[in-house]
Amino acid sequence: MKLDGVETFYGAVKALKGVSFTVPDGSIVALLGGNGAGKTTTLRSISGLTTARKGTIEFNGTRIEKSPPERVVGLGISLVPQGRLLFAELTVAENLELGAYLRHDSAEIKRDIEKAYEQFPILRQKRAQEAGTLSGGQQQMVAIARSLMSRPKLLMLDEPSLGLAPMIVAEIFETIRKIRDDGVSILLVEQNANMALSIANFGYVLESGKVVMSGNVAQLLSDPRVQQAYLGQEAGPAAPQAVRH
Amino acid sequence: MELVPQLIVSGIAAGSLYALVAIGLVLIYKATDIVNFAQGESVTVGAYMGWLCITQFRLPYFVAVVLVLAGSALVGMIVERVAYRPLLKSPPFTVILATLAVGLIIKNAIRLVWQDTPRTISGVFSAEPIEIGSVLITPERLAIMFTVALVVALLVLFFRFSKLGKAMRATAQSQEAASLMGISVPGIFSKTWALGSALGGLAGVLIAPLVGINTELGAVLVPGFVAAVVGGFTSIPGAIVGGILVGVLENLGGVFISSSFKQVVPFVVLITVLMVLPTGLFGKPLRKAV
Ligand SMILES: Nc1ncnc2c1ncn2[C@@H]1O[C@H](COP(=O)(O)OP(=O)(O)OP(=O)(O)O)[C@@H](O)[C@H]1O
Ligand SMILES: [Mg+2]
C-alpha cells in the first residue's frame, strides 16, 4: 500500500499535511508519533472513514482515496479502530460473524471463527456474552479477531496496547507478529514505540500531520532523536540514523 | 360479561396496534436517532392501499396485506430519502420537522385525491362477538392480536438470526464500526425506514375494517408514540408493553372517568411516565459502542 501526499481536513483544520509512505507486502510497519500527530487520521483516511482532500492512496494497484469504508474493506484492508468500537450489545460470536459480513462462504466463515477461538481461547468461553461485558484485553482480542474475519491482506491497528496491562500487551503483540507470519501486512499505530519497534520491520514518525522520520527498525532505534522523543532514553553515541524528512 | 376484564381484553386488542406503530418508531429511532413523525401517515397509506386493493382491484384481503406491506415500505424509503438523507448534517430537530412535513404532504395528497369521504372495507374475520370465558370478543379483534403477536415473533427471529437483522443491530450501535465491517450504512437506513413504515402500514390495513378509512387515521401516532416512550423508546418488548398499557388504560379511563377522557389518556400516561420514570419501563442508560 502506498500513500502519496495525503491531506485530510476536519472542517478547516488540516490534520494531515501531505503524508507519504508505503507498507511493503508481508511486513509490519510502525507509525509512531505523539498525541494529535495525525496517526488515527492517517488510518481513517486509508479506510475511508474520513476522505482525504488531496493526494493518492493506492492498494494493490487500485486507487482508494475516494472509496467509502465498505468498499475498502472489500478490497482487503481492515481497521482495528482506536477505542475498538465493538458492537457492545452483540455477543462475541455475533461480532465475529459481522466481521465476515462481505463474505458468502459460510462453511469457511465457521472455520475462521473456530480459528479465532483457537487463537484466543478465552473468547470461546465468552462467545455468548455481550462484547461490552468483557475486560479491556478481551475486547481488544475480539476487535482483532473481528477484523481478521474479513480475511484482510492489510490489517491496520490503532493503538492496540492502549490501557492494557503489560502481560496482555505482550500477548497482543505476539498475536500481531503471528498474523504477519501468516502473510498479512500490518500497519501498526502506537504511542508505545518500544513495543511497536520490537516487532516492526519499518517505522515512520509522524509529527503534526507530516512524516518527519523514516527508516528500518535498527535505524530508528539508534536514532538519538527517536530515543529522546519516543523511547524515553537519553541520546546515545552516534549510530546509523533514520532518514530525516 | 364482566366489565373490567372485558375492557382489558378489548384494550389489549387496540393496544397491540399501538404496539405495532410504536415498534416502527423504535426501529427507526434506534437506527437513526430520529423520531419519524410521518409514521402515522404510513398507517393511513396502509389503510387506503388496502381499500384500493380490495374494493377497487377486487383482490383478496391477504393479497392486499402483502401489497400494503410493500407499499408502505416504499413510503418509508421515500421519507428516508426526502426528509432524512439530505439532512444528515442537520440537527435532529430539523430532521424530525422534515418527517412531520412529509407526513403532512402525504396526508393532504390523499385528501386531494379522495377528499374527506370516509371509506370502508370488510375484513375476513367476523365482527360477531364470541364468548371466551367471561368476556366477549370479536374474531376480527382476535385475529388482529394474533397477527401482531406473529409479526413480533418474526421480528425477534429476524433480528436474532438473519444477517440483515444483525447488521441492523450493529449499525444501531456504531455506524462507523458497521461501515468498517463492509455494511453499507445508507442501505441499512433505507431498509430500516422501510421496515418501520411497513409495520405502520400493517396497522392501517388491520384496523381499517374496524374503524373505517379516513385521512385522520394517522392520529394513531399519538398513542403509538406514548407506547414507545413508556417502553423506553429503544426496546421492542417495551413498545409492546407500552402499547398494551395505553390501550387498556384508554378503555378503563373512557368508562370510569368519562368517554371524552379516552383521548386524553395517552397524554396523561406520557406525562406520568416522563415524571416518574424518565427512561421508560424498559429504558436503560445509553450504551452504544465501547
Ligand atoms: N473529529 C475531529 N474534529 C476536529 N479535529 C480533529 C478530529 N479528530 C482529530 N482532530 C485533530 O486532528 C489532529 C490529528 O488527530 P489524530 O486523532 O489523527 O491524532 P493521533 O496521532 O491519532 O493522536 P492520539 O495519539 O492522541 O490518538 C489533532 O490535532 C486533532 O485535534
Ligand atoms: Mg489516535
Question: Would you give an account of this structure?
Answer:
The complex is a heterodimer of chains A (245) and B (290). Helix content of chain A is 38%, strand content 25%. Chain A has 245 residues and is an alpha/beta fold. Chain A has one domain (2-244): Rossmann fold (3-Layer(aba) Sandwich), CATH 3.40.50. Chain A has a 7-stranded mixed sheet with strand order 6-7-8-3-9-10-11, with helices on both faces. A 4-stranded antiparallel sheet of chain A has the order 2-1-4-5, with helices on one face. In chain A, a hairpin with a 2-residue loop joins strand 9 and strand 10. Chain B has one domain (4-215). Chain B has helices spanning 3-32, 39-56, 61-84, 92-114, 139-161, 163-173, 175-180, 185-211, 221-230, 236-256, 265-276, and strands spanning 130-132, 135-137. In chain B, strands 1-2 form a two-stranded antiparallel sheet. In chain B, helix 1 (3-32) packs across helix 9 and helix 1 (3-32) runs antiparallel to helix 10. The chains are: A alpha/beta (245), B mainly alpha (290). Chain A binds chain B through residues 47-49, 68-70, 73-74, 78-79, 81, 83-90, 94, 97-99, 101-102, 131-132, 139, 146, 150, and chain B through 163, 166-167, 169-170, 173-174, 176-185, 287-290. The complex binds adenosine-5'-triphosphate and magnesium ion. Adenosine-5'-triphosphate (ATP) binds at residues 10, 13, 15, 33, 35-41, 82, 191 of chain A.
Please give the CATH class of chain A.
Alpha Beta
User: Helical amount among residues of chain B, as a percent range?
Assistant: over 70%
Mind describing the biggest β-sheet of chain B? Answer: 2 strands, antiparallel
Biggest chain pair interface: A-B, 30 and 21 residues
Number of distinct beta strands of chain A? 11
Strand count, sense and barrel status of the largest sheet of chain A are: 7 strands, mixed
Query: Which strand order does the major sheet of chain B show?
Result: 1-2
The secondary structure category of chain A is alpha/beta
* Total helical segments of chain B: 11
What does the average pLDDT of chain B come to?
A: 91
Query: What order do the SSEs of chain B take from the amino end to the carboxyl end, as H and E?
Result: HHHHEEHHHHHHH
Strand content of chain B: under 5%
Please tell me the CATH architecture of chain A by its name.
Answer: 3-Layer(aba) Sandwich
